[in-house]
Amino acid sequence: MIAIVDYGLGNMMSISKAVEYLGYKVLIVKSPQEMDNFTHIILPGVGAFRDAINLIDSQGWRRPLLSWIKEGRPLLGICLGMQILFEYSHEGGYFRGLGVFGGEVRRFSSNVRIPHMGWNSIDIKKDSPLLEGIENGSYFYFVHSFYADPNDAIAFTNYGGYFASVVGANGCYGVQFHPEKSADAGLRLLRNFLRMK
Prior knowledge:
Layout: E1 2-5, H1 12-21, E2 26-29, E3 40-43, H2 49-58, H3 62-70, E4 75-78, H4 80-83, E5 86-89, E6 95-96, E7 101-107, E8 116-121, E9 123-124, E10 139-144, E11 146-150, E12 155-158, E13 162-169, E14 172-175, H5 183-194
Parallel strand pairs: 1-2, 1-3, 3-4, 4-14, 5-7
Antiparallel strand pairs: 5-6, 7-11, 8-10, 9-12, 12-13, 13-14
C-alpha cells in the first residue's frame, strides 16, 4: 500500500491516479498516525515553502517523516515536496526544512522567465535505481519558481544555470519535476520508486 501525504498543499489526485495506473493500491493520508501500514510514502507539494513547512510542523508530520527516512524506508518528494527535504528555503523569508539533504532553496534569477514551466531535460550525474531505464537527456514536466541548490545531486537541469532536479540517498528521493505529468519517463520513474524495498 502506497501513502500520499496530504498536509494541505499537494496535487494528490493526479499522483494517485498515476500510482493506481501502475497497479498499486494507494491511500491519501491526512494524519501521521496512519503511516504504519504503508510500504512507500509520496510527499507532494504545490505552493509556498513557508506555508508547507508550517503545515507539516503544525500537523505533527516532521518527526514521523524523519523517523521513516532514518529507517531507510522509501519516500519520494515531488516538486515542493522535494524542496521541503532540504535544510533551508529563502521563499518568503528564511525557513528551516526537514534537513534530509544539505543545501538551500533559492529563487531563480530575474534573467529567466519565472516560473520555470514546461518540458525540460535532465543531466544525469550518478547512477540511481530511481532512474533505471531512463536515458540521460530525458524530458520531464516542471512548474516552479524556486530551485534546490544542493551539496550533491543525482541529476541536474539547465534553466539559466544548473539546478538539482533529482536528489536521493538511502531510500529517500526528491524530484523537482512532476513525474505524474511527464508521460512515459515519469511513469518509469514512479514504477522504479514503487518497486524499491
